[in-house]
Amino acid sequence: MLSTITRYSPQALITAPKIHTDLLWDLSILFVSLAALYFIGIFYFRNKLSSQNKIIDQKKKDLSPIISEFLFFEENSSKDEKTSYIKLKIEIRQFLKDTFNRRILSEVLLDLGKDVSGKIQKSLFTLYKELELHKDAYKKLESWRWQLISKGIFELTQMHVVESYGFITKFINDKRGTIRKQAEIATVTLKQEGISHFLDTTKYRISEWQQLKLLEVLRNQKDFQPPKFKQWLTSGNKHVVLFSLRLIKHYNQNDAELSIIELVKHKNIQIREEAIQCIKEFAFLNATETLKLVFWNSSANTKIAILSALAVIGTEDDLPFLSQIEFKERNFSVKSKALSTINAIAPESILPTEDIETNIHHNIPEDLETAIMEDKTIDSSTKTIQNMDTDKKGQEAIEIENVKEVIQEIRKEELKSTIKDPNPKKEDTINLGFLPIISSEEPKVIEKHKPLDNNTSNVKDIIVNFQKVVGKNMNDLEVVFEIVKPLLNTSDTKEFKLDFLPLVTLKKKENTPSLDNFYKQVPDIIYDNEFSKETKKETVVSFIPVVYEEVASVNKPVSIDDIDVLNIKEIETIYEEIKITPKEPEKSNSHPEVINLMEYDVDFTTVLPKKEDKEVVNKDTTTNILNSIPKPIFYSDKDLEMMVTLEDMVTFGDAREIPLLQEFLIEENNDSIKERILEVLEKIHQKNVQNIDVDMKVKEEEYISEVNLIEELFSNSDSESKLILLDEIVAVGDKKELKLLNKLLGDPDNNVRQKALICIAQLQNQINIKEEKVLNLVSTEDTQSTEPIPLEYAFLNDYETELKKNNIQAAKTIEESMPIAIDTVNKKEASFLEQFYTFSSKLFERLNG
Amino acid sequence: MTKKILLADDDQLLVSLLQFRLKKEGYQVTFVSNGKEVKEYLSKSIPDIIVSDIMMPYFSGIELVDFVRNELKLNIPIIIISSAGNEENVLSAFELGANDFVSKPFSPTELLLRITKELNK
Lengths: 849, 121
Description:
heterodimer; A: mainly alpha; two-stranded antiparallel sheet; 33 helices; elongated; B: alpha/beta; Rossmann fold; five-stranded parallel sheet; 5 helices; globular
């Protein structure tokens, strides 16, 4: 245990440096002396500055009477004054030889310039120039120090040295912000056109503070004629655009409507909002659509700005848009603003809803309560309408009512779209406009009533006197109305639709036991035509029943010429019974499923109007129509069978059917069937020629692919392989290989060239033999057809010749494509390559049987 | 009899300019640069009119009006000189009894006309 005890010896990890005591003393002395120097320096410079200030103050004191003398000197002053003035001038020139004095004098004049105005100020500016102090300012402009340049520009601006304008404008786009800002103010201050130059040339940002300062400078300029700031709305510098918008607003320049409206779409929010402010300020009514367009993609502040503008320029047409905002917008402020905008356009159309008690338990005294109950029995609609018609205030109230209705409808639609009603209610009104007008009664003379005047578009203006309605259910209703009279002759021509309104007749409908019967009889009603024209204009007036005074049926005889074919619904149709009497079949039909309608006698004339309707349909017209109907062709069973066979041949037949068709053609006596056979022959011929063309194309494509393959093989082979391939070409090749062989005559290998030459000779020989064989085959086939053909069908001979030629050509093509079948010797020697070549041909052969 | 004008302003240049102009018109002008000097002067003599800047060391123009009207109970005309944007103080001065005011920058001639008008009342 004792051996394991660890002993920690105190090792000095950090030791104090060994510094000589004298060094410490030396350092102390150094720091003390430095501190002393620092304090001495401070005192020295402080005293120097204060003494300098004293000197400056003293000099200012000395200079102030001199300056006052100069400023208040007048030409008509006394001789003594003039003498002292000249003495002072000499004195001050001596004084200004010192730079320090010049600086003091400049400061004095600048200070005074701030405090005085009017004539004294002008004298001050003149004195500044006369004493050539502005040259010192020019020298400052040449300095490299930004503060000196800035000071120089400031001096020249304060002392209104207009001559310095050209020097200062150079600094408008200076990199150093202080100089730039000073130059901007100087440019705008010194000359009236300075603002135009500045807006034209500036590339940098114009800060908000700078804009305010510039605006102040412009405002303080005397006789300032502001330029048309719209010319800078197209500037590439967005700050210039923004500043221009503000200037446009400040100077009420409302001649840039389109540009300002366009700027509402600007990416920069500030510009957008400023443009909206301008629109609001100048009440640009054309901006409404653009404001609506940009609304949804804008920030909340911009949306509020847009709504503020709409409150000024908006109309009742914008109310649906504002209502949509109420439903779709989530931002509370925007939503509230939308509501206030609606109220701004249509006052009090939206009433307060927040924290309004809906179920208030009023403690109404009993006597008052009974009076209220009595009031309720009075027809409220009659009461309101009559009240509204009293004066102009009533009209305004109606307009507000309409706006409310529109908003309520929009709200309902929005709610319908958001909340799906599981049990949607059916509309109370029934649109009967689609029903045809049918009448069995004799035509009645329609008593045309004077239509409602256009001015009575507001149906609320009509006085309606209601009478008591008797009856338990709707079928027993008897509605009587007395007066329908427009009251107001307003020029308002709003449209309204009345097709949804219930129909009311003057007569009491008898025998109307059920509601179904009632609706069945509705088509019998014809509205007064003129009245319906007047009511085509649309306005929703759902609260007033429409009253028709006269209900009549029309059964007017119409001439066939008067019928408007385009509007079929309006054609009056007379239906009559068509009598069909079945006829005894002549022969037993071999195809019972085929119904020959011609076997039945149909009295088509019954479709036409009867004799008593002669005044309606002209007789001549009837006969013309009958003559224009084609007469029927009747076939026997055999002929019918033949026709069916021919149709089958057209559908499924090919060249093999031709001999059979020829036989039919000779045997057939029926001209129409003969004609049909010839048509079938022609169709089969055309089909055959097309098939051959298709086959040729397919073979050609296959051959081209083969040739390309051989060429590719040759290009990728060495000399030995080429020699082997040349042997194969002689065995399987034809005329088209000659081109390839001719190419091989230019091969670098001598053996290949010689072999190619031999192959060409052999192949040429083979081709000659094949051609001879084909010619022999054609000559033998030509001698076979010796049977005479009647002149009538002479074209068939030509047709057959053509067909044979095609067949021979096809055979030749097949032969060419199948050299193995022809040349049996080569077949024995067929290698894998040969089999590969002939694969496509074999496939073609098999497919074609 | 020469009218005495007390000019109270810390801006020596402006005061000397006005002094020169007013003296030229025949007025006896006394100029002080701060509120203490104003008090001292008023304890010794009473001017015919006081022209004071609203911003002065130790003693503002409003305090001066208050002092003259409420402490000294003097009814001498007082014209206030104020810098632009200092209208609230001017209003306070008027409430305390100032007779007129001019705003910087002003024309010395304008001030002279106002002084003359006040002295002739």
